[in-house]
Amino acid sequence: MSGITRRQFGAAAGIVGIGGPSGLTPVAALAADPPPKRGGVWRIARNRTVPGMDVQRVSEHFTSLTSMYDYLVEGVVDPKTYELKLLPGLATSWQFENDDKRVIFNLRRDVEFQDGSKFNAAVAKWNLDRMRGNPRSFLASNLTDVSNVKVLNDYTVAIELQAPSSPLLYVLSSAYSWGGMVSQAFQEKFGDDELNRKGCGSGAFRLKTWLVDDRVVLERNPNYWKRGVDNKPLPYLDGMEDIYRPKIDQATIELRTGAVDSVHFPVPRDVATMRRDPNLEYVELPPGEYQDGTCGFNQRKGPFTNINLRKACCYAIDRERLAKIAGFGIARPHAFAYVREGMPGWSPKDWPDYSYNAAKAKELLATVNPRGVNVSLSVIAREPDVTYGELFKAMWDAVGVRTELRAIERLEWLSAMKKDNYEACMWQGSVFPGGFVRDRLFTGAPSNWTNISLPALDKALIEDSQTLSTAKRHEIMKNAFKMLYEEALITNGTATTYAVGSNKKVRGVRSYWRVLVANEIWMA
Description:
The protein is of the alpha+beta class. The chain has 2 domains: 6-246 and 505-523, Periplasmic binding protein-like II (D-Maltodextrin-Binding Protein, domain 2), CATH 3.40.190.10; 289-497, Dipeptide-binding Protein, Domain 3 (Dipeptide-binding Protein, domain 3, Roll), CATH 3.10.105. The protein contains 17 helices and 20 strands. The chain is globular. The N and C termini lie far apart (48 Å). 51% of the residues are buried.
């Protein structure tokens, strides 16, 4: 490892437990007080619908889905320090060899999947190969440095790398949530489609019922291997329900009436009401955050091939106004997509300043067409996307960028992005564990929604993924984001710390970055 020792790498990554005792778990390290009670069903609502039960083939992060699976590495946020820690999961320990181009994982021996099949090194290899090779895998773009996976014995597996991989432990952790281990026996017997309908992991919960576009109902896995602070098998709950509410403000009403127990990321306008209610609380869970008004431009065809038009639209966004109107004192102005303070590359002083400047926007627009320009903005038909779309439209209209707002369903929006059938588009962005954004910005990556393709940016993202030094990663990503923003390919409106609104009877709330650790939640 060049410029940094393995011990330093572990400290920089927040890694705990490398080579440590196999019984160490986040539960033991961060126990709830008072002692948890057992039983009950926890109901959480959010404005995303679970698209399938195969955790390796989804583009979103869902608490229900993550709780059905286990991961080689546990990536959990310490509720006291907000530090992301990488802890033993299905791997009891790991070590780097061969100039950090080989990682040895020692695996747990007491784990079985919900179909009764056993977890071992052969199954781990099968899963890792599937994550790398399945065309629908959302981890594949972060695993391109993996050259081979070898079974060393029944409970030891080696990942061989073409070059050192700084994101490897993060992307295989529960913090990323897409690297859960699925049952090889189930998939080989029933196929991908049935796995996507029913799921089969080794997690604390198993599927009871899935009512598509309504709710996922889970029940406790009676054979779960991990234990709680009472030394009994987790989870504490008998079950949980992940309820789809496309209008999340409806879920807030249900929270107040007791029809649900928690609301995933409630809209900012409802937060003051929650805080006034003696039975409710608004729980912020940094360092994860959502970025609203993340906006990309199609630079390959249509009006936004003109860089001055892209820049004009960036200057026309009044982010202070967005934070007040749509953020209700909870959101903050934030112009830079996919990065925040404290992450590798964060250096606004080195990037273009797109603070609100209507005069500058009009000046740039005049070089495109003195009479103004007609454009379209495609948003997903959900909140807060529609509200931000309406505000962007008003701000762009005001400087002469006459905007047609197109609010379409999520699957239609995704299809339009893949086909490059858009001019400008908007979605709810976020930041990612370790600050790795290769799956969002690399050419052809599955979550590169606006099809950004810059060879120099791709080169920087590869270099970042092969660099273990935090200081060097910072310089690489500072310049990578500079390219992105100088070309005005993507911009952003506001940022809001990840949070849940909950009844105070819901206890033990903490996160795997953007989903909750359901196996530790209990009802007072």
